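re: the backbone from monday

yeah here it is again, tokenized this time
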């Protein structure tokens, strides 16, 4: 299965992250998920309760992940 993320629907993100995914109406629609090494967060194209058009992921930010060493 291919993983795209940017442009994916909120429904697809729910399949990937399950109950770890949280959403908010902040900034017109945002999402976040906490993993064992940090947190991913971002913006959606619309508010989380929209069904048509369905919200899509347009921004991903990684928070708290360790920096890669050279």
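seq for it, each position gets an aa:
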């Amino acid at each position: 299965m291919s993983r795209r993320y940017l442009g994916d629907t909120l429904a697809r993100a729910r399949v990937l992250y399950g109950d770890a995914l949280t959403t908010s109406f902040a900034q017109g629609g945002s999402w976040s998920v906490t993993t064992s090494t940090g947190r991913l967060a971002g913006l959606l194209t619309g508010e989380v309760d929209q069904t048509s058009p369905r919200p899509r992921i347009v921004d991903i930010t990684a928070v708290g992940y360790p920096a890669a060493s050279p």
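The chain has one domain: 10-63. The beta strands are 21-24, 30-34, 39-43, 61-63.
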